[in-house]
Amino acid sequence: MTDCSSHVPVLEVTDLVRHYRLPRESLFAKPGHVYALNGVTFQIQRGKSFGIVGESGCGKSTLARNVMALEETDSGSVKILGQEVVGLSFDQLRPLRQHFQMIFQDPYGSLDPHHTVGRIVAEPLAALGAISNAERDRRVAEVLESVGLKTRDVTKYPHEFSGGQRQRIAIARALITHPELIVADEPVSALDVSVQAQVLNLLKDLQVQYGVTYMFISHDLAVVEYLCDEVAVMYLGEIVEKGLTENLFTNPAHPYTRILLDAVPKPGSGKRRERIKLKGNVTGQTERRVGCSFQDRCPMVQDLCRSEKPPLKEVGPDHLAACHFSDKVSAAG
Amino acid sequence: MSDVQSTSFLSRCRRSRSFVVGGLLTGFLLLCAFVSLFWTPGSAYDIIITNRFLPPSSLHWLGTDQFGRDIVSMLMTGTQNSIVVAVVAVSIGLSIGVSLGLLASARRGWTEELIMRFSDFSFAFPAILSAIMLTAIIGPGGVNSILAIGLYNIPVFARLTRGSANAIWAREFVMAARAAGKGRFRITFEHILPNILSIIIVQATILFAIAILAEAALSYLGLGTQPPEPSWGRMLNEAQTLMFLDPMQAIYPGLAIATAVFGLNLLGDGLRDILDPRLSRKR
Ligand SMILES: Nc1ncnc2c1ncn2[C@@H]1O[C@H](COP(=O)(O)OP(=O)(O)OP(=O)(O)O)[C@@H](O)[C@H]1O
Ligand SMILES: [Mg+2]
């Protein structure tokens, strides 16, 4: 890191908490809560790709929506390029939004069927305010070209495109303001496997071309391993392990990470790790429990885990894990 | 719109039998109303007692009524009346109801609660009954019956709009628009309204039929269009006493009402199929 400005992380999330309030079951019942995010902390440096993995319902999309300032955050802080966004009004956020854009999971749902491709792609510019038509058309043509679409596609409607092409349109829309940060919420999981690779390569190329930083959400470890420099593993609204992709994939320090990795068949690796299996089912997110959040499903659970919550602690260089027995997880591997 | 899309739209129109039949029936009624503005075969107003109960002839295609007025002319002028009442009443309901529904959906919270409780309240009364009640309060007459029917239409549109708009608000492309920085007002006009327009059009067609029915009912009861303006409902009322003397007198306006309601309902059904975005997306 030589450049001074690169010391400011593009994204800095601190102790982010989001609890959804459920509707009351009856008039006098206490309203329940979904504890979707329980204090999430991480940073992403400029030009890096940060992966977030975890099973369905662990709060990945909630994290994305809160980073994008699309819903009320309960507490914590989200700084984008050093600028706090939590607590700003929608109007205050508008000029800042050009610096952080989002790609959604479903390319069939994220494009308005009644708008032309040109209008869809120009949407972030249109929302930003005054810009000449010529300049807008020029920018639209530029991004369409960089995502591999044709300039004459601007007059077409989304239904005239395949899933992979639609996701390219969505990527073009996210790129048009030349943002610093792109939050991608499972951008390839709705696509065919063959198309997935094309879109991932496109995302990689665009990162080089535009120097953009990715917060990349996925439940597919292979995808994250391919694209990301750093990975955080989420479980029930918490980060349970975080580290450089290589370290984390070769040396998992949390039993949950290890189980996830063991579930992926790896033809290349010579050494076969002894498999450990997951116990039980996903426990609900509607109650808060004492001790480790993973205790109900952990194969190596001890008494300590039921009484004391393990902090996220250093287990190696740039490698954090929240497990009382992380040394045993690594040793077993 | 591209060429591909418009041709497929036309061919879908032609393939939908209910759209074609409903469109023809509705078109025929519109034509009758339009022609009657300039020309009718006889007079719908002049009372000539010596001409009463004439049988159908080349001069009086469907004969005359007990006051010697030409029945075809009365039916044609009555079409005009029904259409004007329905258009104005549906427009009142549409403009206010759709605005309220969009507002409820965009604001949520207590605004939505208030608007929806208000429309629940008015829903407790059936269409015609509430129109009768309203005209009983504000007095009979053509304008008042329009108002009564229009007021009834407001909550119908408000509910439909709010329900369909809420479904669109939950879509990812709306989230994308928010992430781009578009405000709720702007999203409502650029994304929500175009996506629910077809549903609203279909509903408007069907409420159009209900409005024609309601107007006929009010006029039949003497609460709607006042004499000497011809109206299908009043023709029915006047024919009632002659049911056994000359039953055709009641059958003609009855058929006119049935044709209008049937045609509009078919048109609504056809439009529903044609405008269904799921069908148009598959092409
Ligand atoms: N608006 C909401 N109101 C109430 N609960 C919600 C809301 N949005 C999400 N949740 C709940 O919060 C939890 C986290 O949801 P989230 O969508 O973030 O999961 P996810 O990790 O993205 O899952 P997936 O992989 O299926 O997309 C889930 O239990 C979900 O039911
Ligand atoms: Mg999700």
What is the topological layout?
The complex is a heterodimer of chains A (333) and B (283).
Chain A lengths: L10 E11 L11 E12 L4 E5 L6 H8 L7 E6 L2 E2 L5 H4 L6 E4 L13 H5 L1 H6 L4 H14 L16 H13 L5 E5 L7 H18 L2 E6 L2 H7 L2 E6 L2 E7 H6 L4 H9 L39 H5 L5 E4 L2 E3 L4 H7 L1
Parallel strand pairs in A: 3-8, 3-9, 6-7, 7-8
Antiparallel strand pairs in A: 1-2, 1-4, 4-5, 9-10, 10-12, 11-12
Helix pairs in contact in A: 5-6, 6-7
Chain B lengths: L2 H13 L1 H22 L32 H37 L1 H15 L3 H12 L3 H28 L2 H9 L3 H37 L11 H9 L7 H28 L1 H6 L1
Helix pairs in contact in B: 2-3, 2-10, 3-4, 3-6, 3-8, 4-6, 5-6, 5-8, 6-8, 7-8, 8-9, 8-10, 9-10
Bound molecules: adenosine-5'-triphosphate and magnesium ion (MG).
Can you characterise this structure?
The complex is a heterodimer of chains A (333) and B (283). Chain A has 333 residues and is an alpha/beta fold. Chain A contains twelve helices and twelve strands. Chain A has an eight-stranded mixed β-sheet, with helices on both faces. In chain A, strands 2-1-4-5 form a four-stranded antiparallel β-sheet, covered by helices on one side. In chain A, helix 7 (193-210) links the parallel strand 7 and strand 8 (213-218). The longest helix of chain A is centred in the middle third of the chain and has 18 residues, at 193-210. With 283 residues, chain B is mostly helical. Chain B is built from eleven helices and no strands. Chain B has helices at 3-15, 17-38, 71-107, 109-123, 127-138, 142-169, 172-180, 184-220, 232-240, 248-275, 277-282. Chain A binds chain B through residues 65, 68, 70, 90-91, 93-95, 97-98, 101-102, 104-106, 109-114, 123-124, 126-128, 155-157, 159, 170, 173, and chain B through 2, 5, 171-173, 175-183, 186, 191, 194-195, 277, 280-283. Bound molecules: adenosine-5'-triphosphate and magnesium ion (MG).
